Amino acid sequence: MNLETRILIVDDDPGIRSLISSFLEKYGYVTETACDPVQMRERLGQSTYDLIVLDVMMPREDGLTALQDLRKNSGPPVIMLSAVGGDVDRIVGLEMGAEDYLAKPCNPRELLARIRTVLRRREAGGQLPGNASTNVVPFALPDSADVLQFSGWKMDMVSRLLHDPNGVPVTLSDGEFRLMRAFVEHPRRVLTRDQLLDFARGEESEHYDRAIDVQVSRLRRKLASTTDSSELIRTVRNEGYMFMPVVNRPTLLQS
């Protein structure tokens, strides 16, 4: 593994900061800590990090507010830790852009596994898992097909931007991009929630259907800017979702 992988641990409990930091350093990670979001921002201004482990419940400013700020500023991937571990809280964290969410107290080895999964996904460039379904095989995009087109929309696979039929850019979070990529690479096929979870979050993530429903709902809102989004992503009762448009993969892009 890369000995220069840097992880920032943000938690108001010094014991937890020390425990996580010491454990990860045994596995070759370079760690630094911060006691709150204010100190986190100071650290980010002084150095770069490959991942942040961020506590949710902290005094003065909570972790979800800090997460929202990180996502606005294209910060590193975030794994949330929280003593509140219900499904609704996890969904909120994922919806706001966290890569993963663990309830406290958590086994340090489980945190390590989640960190490795997130970093592998980042190193792979958000590629779809190849064995999510025997009936759905992701294709490799040729270099010339960086932009996919459907129903007047354009999806830039490099900048991770959608452009609506009027040419207005629509920014996607990391999770929304991976989910959208699953749809455009598998148009007119029913994708189950389990398949979409694998595509959007990685095979080692926890599987709960509501997380995908929330992500699909967010995508529909963004796609509804100029078109009837119900015709783009269709709910298939008791099955999952189907992306309805024909997707064009141009062999030559115009500047």
Features:
disordered C terminus, 19% strand, 255 residues, 4-stranded antiparallel β-sheet, 8 helices, Rossmann fold, Arc Repressor Mutant, subunit A, 2 domains, alpha/beta, elongated, 12 strands
Structure description:
The chain is an alpha/beta fold and about 260 residues long. The strands form three sheets. It has a five-stranded parallel β-sheet, with helices on both faces. It has a four-stranded antiparallel β-sheet with strand order 6-7-8-9, with no helix packed on it. A three-stranded antiparallel β-sheet has the order 10-12-11. It contains eight helices and twelve strands. α4 packs parallel to α8 (about 210-225). It has two domains: about 5-125, Response regulator (Rossmann fold, 3-Layer(aba) Sandwich), CATH 3.40.50.2300; about 145-245, Arc Repressor Mutant, subunit A (Orthogonal Bundle). It is about 35% helix and about 20% strand.
- Give the SSE order as H and E letters: EHEHEHEHEHEEEEHEHHEE
Rounded mean pLDDT is 77
Shape: elongated
CATH H-level name of the largest domain... which superfamily? Response regulator
Query: In what range is the share of β-strand residues?
Result: 15-25%
CATH topology heading of the largest domain: Rossmann fold
Strand order within the widest sheet?
2-1-3-4-5
- Please provide the count of β strands: 12
Helical residues, percent: 25-40%
Number of helices: 8
Provide the structure class: alpha/beta
- CATH architectural grouping of the largest domain: 3-Layer(aba) Sandwich
Q: Work out the radius of gyration.
A: 19 Å
Question: Unreliable runs, pLDDT <50, ≥5 residues?
Answer: 126-145, 202-208, 251-255
Count of spatially separate domains: 2
Instruction: Determine the N-to-C terminus distance.
Output: 40 Å
The biggest beta sheet is recorded as: 5 strands, parallel
Kindly provide the name of the CATH class of the largest domain: Alpha Beta
